[in-house]
Design goal:
3-stranded antiparallel β-sheet; single chain; alpha/beta; elongated; about 45% helix; TIM Barrel
Amino acid sequence: TCLQLSSPELMRKLPNGGTLHHHMKDRTIVSTPTKDSDKASTATEPERSNTSCRKWLVTCGIFLLGCALITAIGLPIALELRSSHLLEARLQVVRRILAETPLIDGHNDFLWNLRKNRGLHLDGFPFDEDLSQNTTLGPLWQTDLSRLHQGNIGAQFWSAYVPCEAQFLDAVQLTLEQIDVVRRLSTKYPTRMRLVTSSEELKQAHKDGVLASLFGIEGGHSIGASMAVLRSFHLLGARYMTLTHKCSTP
């Protein structure tokens, strides 16, 4: 420590045990600490080091906590946005493919469901609406023109099914009645569905944005062991018949 004194003084002891050295030329007195004073001043160095270390650890902890919060909140949002973007991109590809190539559903049991629940009556039956939103009809129906369109179905094979118990009894009649329903629906909703009997007609209906309707016979027992009935079904528009269901076809 350097002190500038106003008058010359002799060297004397300081309270801290140091000594004053008197320089006459520049009238400056230099205080020289003793070894005990050195120890006192350096004793606080570990404390300063510990304080700095604690501050550094607290800063790092806050930083890491912030990173964890950002990751926990931001990462799921980013992944969801990325997933949504990828899903929409894939759906666009699917829609483009289905706009060019008709998706054909080869089997639909709507006709039998209509027989069981409405006796094949179409009056008051809104087949062109989304029946899942109808509190009265919804639970019974999984098919309607609205959802077929939403699902990008290009062509639908309606299944004309009758139980094996009708074999050799009224199987032919029951099959004809269900074929009749397909024709009636096509007449009732001409801008939504069209009865087709060939691949060319199917492709044309798809280009026109209309559901191509076809039907098949589910089970050979429906023809009553008569090839004439089979040929008649074909003339009416049937384009496939499964050989058997759960009963033998003679």
